[in-house]
Amino acid sequence: MEQLTLNIDYGNAFDQACSLWQLRSAFVSVKRNRGAPGVDGVTVDDFAADLEGNLRILRTELWLGPTARLL
Q: How many CB atoms are located within 10 Å of the residue 44 CB?
């Protein structure tokens, strides 16, 4: 049986997932679904109050890894 090999550039996929466009799109989906507050207690409306600033902070936290906490 022939084995399938996928050539995925995970760095590029991560870049795409962390793009402001993609994060903004994800926010719109959460807002449309009336998402619940996160573990930090931040509601959709709280996050939307400074959407662009919060998206930039979120992108930075994603890049810095699990120990980052800028919000």
A: 17
CA atoms of 71 and 58, how far apart (whole Å):
8
13-71 per-position pLDDT tens digit: 888 888 999 999 999 999 999 999 988 899 999 999 999 999 999 999 888 887 766 55
Backbone angles phi, psi at 55, to 5 degrees: -65, -40
**Could you tell me the residue range of the domain that residue 17 belongs to?**
13-64
d(CA 1, CA 59): 42
In a domain, 23, yes or no: yes
How many domains does one find in the chain? 1
**Inside any domain, residue 44:** yes
Whether pTM > 0.85 for this model: the answer is no
pLDDT exceeds 60 at position 1: no
Determine, yes or no, domain membership for 69: no
